[in-house]
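Example complex used in Figure S2.
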Amino acid sequence: MSRDVTLEHVTIRFGSHTAVDDAHLTIRSGEFFSFLGPSGCGKTTLLRCVSGFLEPTEGRVLIGGEDMRGVGPNRRPTALIFQNLALFPLMSVAENIAFALEVRGVGRQARRKRAVELLELIALPHVGDKKVYELSGGQRQRVAIARALAAEPQILLLDEPLSALDLKLRQHMRSELRAIQRRVGLTFIYITHDQGEALTMSDRVAVMSEGRIEQVDEPLAVYDHPKTSFVASFVGETNVLPATVTGRDGTDVTLQTDGGLIVQGFAVGRRQYRAGERCQVFVRPEQIKVAPPEPGPNRLAARVLAEEFEGNLRHVSLAVGGSVGGSGGAPAVGALAVGGQPLRMSVVNDGSLPPLQPDAALTVTFDPSVASVLPEGPLARA
Amino acid sequence: MSARGNVLAARGSVWRPVVARISWQRLLLLLFVAAFFAYLFGPLIIMTVTAFNSADYPRVTPWDCFTTQWFGRFGRDSLLLAGLANSFFIGLGVVLLSLPIGLAAAIALSEVGERARSLLYTVFIVPILLPGIVIGIATLLFWGRIAGSFGLGHDTLLYNGIFLTILGQVCFISSYSMLIFLARIQRFDPTQTEAALDLGATPGQAFRKVLLPFLKPAIGSAAVLAFLASVENYNTTVFTIVSESTFTTVLASKVRFGIDPTISAIAVIIITTTLVAAIIQEARQRRLAARRREALAGVAAGAGAAAVMAGPTGRLLSHPASVAVLLLAVVGGLVWAGSRYDSSACQDALLQQKLQRQQELLEQQRQRMQQQAPAQPAPVPSGAAPKPASPFGGVFAPNNLGLSAPGGAVPAPAPPGAAPKPASPFGNAFAPDNLGLSAPGGATAPKIEPGAPAAPADPAPATQ
Amino acid sequence: MSPNGIRVAFSRFFHRWGPGVGIFVTGSVALWIVLLIVLPQLAMFDASFRFNLPPAEIGGPRDLHTLSNYAALLLDGRGGINWLDLGVLGRTILAAVFVTILDLLLCYPIAFVLAHGTSGGRARLMVLGLIVPFWVNEILRAFAFRIIFGSSGVLNAVGLGLGLWAAPVDFIRQDVALYAGLTYTYLLLMIFPIYNAVEALDRNQIEAARDLGSPWWRVHWRIVIPVAKPGIASGATMVFMLTAGALAAPQILGGPSSLWFTQLIYQWFNEGGNWPRGSAYAVVLLLACILVTLLAMRVFKVRIGEIGR
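Predicted assembly (1155 residues):
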């Protein structure tokens, strides 16, 4: 049975406000697919549209190739895990799980049997007779999943289901969810604003901003090769350098940052930049390294502003003044060159870098192949 | 630390009077609250006390004998019992109609948009604000007119006092139940319905299996409130009841035209029932709260901690069922003891005493009349104000207050002599009271209530 | 509501809860509003413009519309003004206002204490204490006041016993019993709206104000009362309307000299046998009450949508 979901140019408007703008993609059968974006980006609206609580203003939703227009939520092969879980507080756990069977007229015995099976699946075999409020947060989470699975959906939709849990439990539930997905083999569509969740669990991720889908890709590609400024700045930590193009050689681009640094990067999507064009250069903190003595591109003179120690990683804030070999000389402290922000560098705490004193001068570098050059665009708010 | 100390020291002079003022205010507030609750409960307590005084007029002082005779009277009052039966049926009808209407109205309010909601809300709340008699009159006239236009006779449903009263009361009691349902629905999480739909339920199933169970407590309280409001309603009922009677209209006519401790006895029964119900309800509430707490504690700290909170005996005792049994046993015991208690000895003694006193007075009077021919005409010596009340009270006692005579025109209050202090200058205070209730141009004689609302058979009113 | 609005609402019920519930909701609400509220009021309004005819002539040639019933309230039939009935109306409205103010003064502190002065078990006990007396019949409560205020009642017994006054005071003739009884009857309708409003107030605001050295009355005047205003308006409207429309308490506790306007209406219906005139009086009472309420709402800047919440 095909369980793929296709959004065909789906646009959803509320009055003059466009919540979803021309979403067009296919979610493959059996895939763990995430919509990632800040709150208010339209991802929940899109999910409600797939589950049938909303009809698209324009475009179509196809499930298994069938047009879902006019098909109510109770007749779609989808099941939704609500953000607040929406477990029925007046029913026992088993009654909650068997609800989908109850409304289909399945007999009491069969219902009980199925509830027991599903409780086994979520590894909570003994809570069937408890009330919902007697369960812990993580248990409720799993019961909600079991309840949705009892409806035998082909697609499971999850609307930020982990957001109410504390950090430890959240991390545990990530692997749990992924394991359940593998076991039942359903298509999971997952909504989240937490990039950690999206990147760890998903087969593919769609990053959304202001109703538009910015990029659909595998987690690694989204992280390493962001296609828009928004994606680059929203997913993961990054340094943003506003710059102007000075030259180009294939995909290699030479730029002058607004702080006067000369750097080299690569043009994402083989874009043909013209000299003088405004753009942004994105470099991840972990890609910035203490420069080796031999010469190379992107060597920057820097001064240590501060260092934060986080166990396995050390985060160093740097003031960069100029390209070594270019204008030369160590920068004065406070002469920040990276869009007014200090340049951030993350170093693995493996003892290779001696402790840094504030004000210490050092030279840092990054490889041009990890410096994504993108046309100037809106950034994600910090 | 020292800086804080300095601040405190510096402020000390400012703080002390503030503290003093607050406690002084507290005291005042406490007194106010106490006075307020005295105002709330005082009348009920006093009424309760009068139910056990054998005096024929409900009063606390002077105290005659402790008696339970007034309770017996209530049980034998056929008018009241008939009214009670009618009230019960009307209450039942009102509950059955006003609950669905209130529920529908609350659902309507929760679904419509912001602007429609405030308009609709205003419409729904209006019946509460309409004076009860306006609703009563309007209902009576409207259904009379419907019946007239269909040519229905006076023996049909549309002229039936019970039917009309149900409709009249449903008009405004539906608003009450609407408010109760609305309060509950506003706490309903709409994603619950969505979850049900998403799991394959039809909208109807979502309503029945998710929303209705959620509203169950509200259904209970709305039913209780609607029933109580129905039984106690007077203003609307007095018009719509036509030739029938309800508990409240019978009570009202009794209170208006004759006043005796039987009414106090009825009040005692109602108060006791209320208190018992309230205590059982409170026990239930506490148990539910405790259970919830236990469950939460069980999640947080393991089940062990919860069990310590209440031992098995405590748990058994605080169970609502055992509370109910206990209370009912106490009440039953009191009723049993009360029914066996016989105050006739005390009353006979008192009567003897009074007769004796009367004899003495007569004797004194005769002597005085013999002594001086132009004697005082008044039978009452001026210094003995409270006492002379008794002879009359005693004399009129057995046949006072026409509980026994439904057709007997309630004779009691008419002669001023029935008032306990006939000789005092204010003894006739009750007479004008009666007068005030009758028509400005109408007869001064008090009417008997059940016949009072113009029956449809009455030729005068326009019933078309 | 516009027809379109009704259609939208209608389709929403059907969408949300299915056709069964949709029909139930719209049907029940429509029946309630039309059959139980609007049409009866219209019938009363219409009846107030008719002559008092024997049943045989109703619908006949003499069954015409007339203003005579309203004229009877305004004029005394001899070319003068009917001061008697108009006086009763005015006195009823004034007395209802008085009772409303009395209720407000009594209930505001109680509602405040309930919302911010107690908590947990004691608050629940207090609520229980407030509600339980009102489960007792209104007639019986009025009766209790008669026992207290009667000339041989408890109050006189105590007053005379303590030597506070020499001769028994007729509290019923003085209307003391009536005001006490009416005030008592609608206490809850004042307390709970105010409580609901005041409860929403953040306690820190009160404490902050007190910390800044505000005296208690200013804390209430500037912080608590503005928050309580919708509740006060709601409570005051209900108490006023119901007090002005009360019948039981005036019948039982009213002094001989002070008729309540509802008693006049009652008399026209029962002793007088003139239903049209009674209807006219009822319409006037209703309009007078609405007018006073709207006036008060205008003065205190409150909307009717806030009532009952």
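Chains C and A do not touch (no CB pair under 8 Å). Chain C is about 70% helix and 0% strand.
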